[in-house]
Amino acid sequence: MTPPSAGVGTPDVHPTPTTSRQSGPPLLEVRDLVKHFPIRRGILGRTVGHVRAVDGVSFQLWPGETLGLVGESGCGKSTTGRMVLRLLEPSAGSVHFDGADVLALSGARLRAMRRHAQIIFQDPFSSLNPRMTIGAAIREGLTIHRIAAGEAADRRVRELLSEVGLRPQFADRYPHEFSGGQRQRVGIARALSVSPRLIVCDEPVSALDVSVQAQVVNLLQDLQRDRGLAYLFIAHDLSVVEHIADRVAVMYLGHIVELASATDIYREPLMPYTQALLSAVPVPDPTVRSTRVVLSGDVPSPANPPSGCVFHPRCQHPRKDEACTKLVPPLEEKSAGHWAACIKQPPTTVHWEVQKAAGGTRQPERYLPDL
Amino acid sequence: MTPPPKGADAPGAEAPLLSVTDLRTYFHTNNGVARAVDGVSFTVAQGETVGLVGESGCGKSVTALSLMRLIQSPGRIEPGSSVRFEGTELLTLSEADMRRVRGNRMAMVFQEPMSALNPVFTVGDQIAEVARIHSRASRRDAWRQAVAMLELTGMPAPEQRAHEYPHQLSGGMRQRVLIAMALMMNPALIVADEPTTALDVTIQAQILELLADLQRRTGTSILMITHDLGVIAETARRVIVMYAGEVVEQSAVGPLFATPHHPYTEGLLAAMPRMGRRRDRLRVIPGTVPPPTDWPTGCRFRARCQYSWDRCANEHPPLYDLGDGRRSRCHLAVEPGRRAHPHEPLAAQAVPAR
Q1: Whether complex ipTM tops 0.90
Q2: Do the Cβ atoms of B233 and A242 come within 8 Å?
Q3: Which of A108, A141, A198, B118 lies 20 to 30 Å from B223, alpha-carbon distance?
Q4: Is the pLDDT of residue B276 over 80?
Q5: Does the distance separating the beta carbons of B233 and A283 come in below 8 Å?
Q6: CA distance B219 to chain A (A)
Q7: pLDDT reported for residue A275
């Protein structure tokens, strides 16, 4: 289940990407997380292959921090978010939350963990029961986790509503009476009801209009500041992520291909996929005509990912060669706190001799297109 | 396959290709009359790309469907509306004549290609059908044209792909199929309703590039409808901003982004996070769009506006002409001094803003 090793140049155990700025133990630590979905065929349901949705993902998240997880459809970002909370069982790897091994928890202890780790979904309407008032929906968490009951619970619901910018009287209304932005506020109130320390935000503003999106983004930032929340912020909108995230991890075909501070990744993207992704974002300024890296073709199927570097068939790095099709690039620290998976961006632990032995013909050289 | 470009770089020389005047499309529902499009006027010149931007419920998609006369009951294009296209009034055409315009001279590209395609026919058949209907081409000719069109849209292995069904294609490829269908008859105008919204950003870049390239080659005009100001900035020459069923601002793309006049446009631009310009907080437009059954009197943006004053409550602002092709539906056009005194909007006072 572990990805094939790149050979001599790669250390056997990948160090977990980290930053020097952080101190203290991480709140969340994910190591070599894998999710393979079986592909079944025929009446016997024989497994004929696997969709490698997440294929060895490692990262850490500290209290009060926001880690952006970005990538295009099917890159495995949402699957990763769900595995962190064990809404999906990982095929392999480990998840530690506040020091505890999440994958070993069950029953009451798993429920206790979930009290501290919540999730907000993209479409708040489909995650709310249409026949339950929003007050009742928010109250649920309080009851299940035995935080408050009766009059105290009602009071807490009203407080939560006003904390997310809704009128407390709204508690008696039903989800259909709310606009998209208001429903997302309800989703947030619901997540907050159990006083979590981590919220997995799965595309929380993608379905919202720009003006409403700004309201929700600001709300999330205020709550983080007031309560010291950590966010795993999953999104495909790179401008929103730059705005809200401290660090950003870029995913492609089940792998993290780059991980760095938001400042570094947007100013100096090293992995060619990140470069293409950033340059594809339309700039809301007609006076700017950026040179665009237009990728050819579509993302390959995760059921049959390319060999070596999964990005090599679409890569625009001028030094791309045979070695890229053979060697799996390790996610390595290119400069302090800036991790990227590319054997053609120096420095690399996959030495030139190793690359040559794998058919490499072009020496690594730094490539930074003008974005 | 590709006809010579006609008037590609001389838009607006004569009568505009499309001229919409006082378009009103109302939905007569049990909950009242929803005035989704409420007196919209604009033009599109030959070879021009005009961006139509606004948020959910502003009426931009209903405008597009009205142009194509695809409004269904309880919706109705109200008497007094006019859509002139290539010199013909479309709203009084018989349905048979309208069918000759639709898909032929004026074609539409939808947001969700999967629901716009028929799942039980190959994409090649669906593209060929356009030519079979409009030019009575033989089965074989139509198929050949369909493959050539797919090739033009940059579809990899077009001959093979033409034999596939929609579900076998990726989202980007499906959108190429829709574009091939739209271009089949070499239309004078393509109405593209959020053509890239459902696509990933790298695929969006491919499709936008494709549309721009095809336009250069064929001289087609494009009405680009989107909520994404980034897409507008990259594709359009002129922009129409809609809010609550009305045009609120109209301008060449440069000045609109540099010095938005209408407070709604200003708010939208300020609310967008932008790459490379990180700020501590995003500006917000407080409140939400009012329901179309119940547009406020006076200025419809008033409750969310940071400049509004008593005039905005009493007097529905006309689309003021600011010169140089700019128009704005805001009384600031005649009382510009008010811009110096922003205040907390009404909507922000109603809902406690954090």
Answers
A1: no
A2: no
A3: B118
A4: no
A5: yes
A6: 21
A7: 94
CA neighbor of A270 nearest in space, from A340, A346, A371, A369: A340
pTM: 0.86
Q: Please list the helix, strand and coil fractions of chain B in percent, rounded to the nearest 5, in that order.
A: 35, 20, 45
A328, amino acid identity: V
Q: What is the pLDDT of residue A10?
A: 37
State the virtual CA torsion across B186, B188, B194, B195 in degrees, nearest 10: 20
Q: Which site among B169, B206, B259, B284 would you substitute to test the A interface, given the most A Cβ atoms closer than 10 Å to its Cβ?
A: B284
Closest CA to B187 of B15, B305, B18, B347: B18
Which bin fits A45, alpha (ψ -120 to 50), beta or left (φ > 0)?
left
Chain B residue with CA closest to A273: the answer is B202
Percent of chain A that is helix, strand, coil (3-state, to 5): 35, 20, 45
As a whole number of Å, the CA-based R_g of chain A is 22
Asked if A294 reaches chain B (Cβ–Cβ under 8 Å), the answer is yes
Q: What does the pLDDT read at residue A321?
A: 95
- What is the rounded end-to-end Cα distance, in angstroms, of chain B? 59
Query: Lowest mean pLDDT: which of A20-29, A167-176, B186-195, B222-231?
Result: A20-29
Q: Which of A206, A286, A298, A369 is nearest to B202 (CA)?
A: A298
- In the 8-state DSSP scheme, what is residue A104? G
Q: Is A110 on the interface with B (CB under 8 A)?
A: no
Nearest to A345, CA basis, from A362, A366, A326: A366
Determine the distance in angstroms separating the CA of A285 from the nearest CA of chain B, rounded to an integer.
6
User: Going by C-beta distance under 8 Å and a sequence separation of 6 or more, which residues neighbour residue A361?
Assistant: A321, A322
Looking at the complex, does the CB of residue A343 fall below 8 Å from at least one CB of chain B? no
Task: List CB contacts of A355: < 8 A, sequence separation 6 or more.
Answer: A9, A321, A323, A327, A343, A364
Eight-state DSSP code of residue B117: S
Residue of B nearest to A73 (CA): B200
Residues B55/B269, Cβ–Cβ less than 8 Å: no
The tokens for A271 are 């992995």
Which chain B positions have a beta carbon within 8 Å of A73's beta carbon? 171, 200
What average pLDDT does this structure show over A4-9? 38
Cα–Cα dist A223/A192, whole Å: 9
Q: What are the two backbone dihedrals, phi and then psi, of residue B113, each rounded to the nearest 5 degrees?
A: -60, -30
Per-residue model confidence as pLDDT tens digits over A258-309: 999 999 999 999 999 999 999 988 888 888 766 677 887 778 888 889 999 9
Query: Hey, are the CB atoms on A72 and B284 less than 8 Å from each other?
Result: no
* Coil, helix or strand at residue B268: helix
Nearest to A282 among B173, B231, B276 (CB): B231
With beta carbons under 8 A apart, name residues in chain B contacting A182: 288
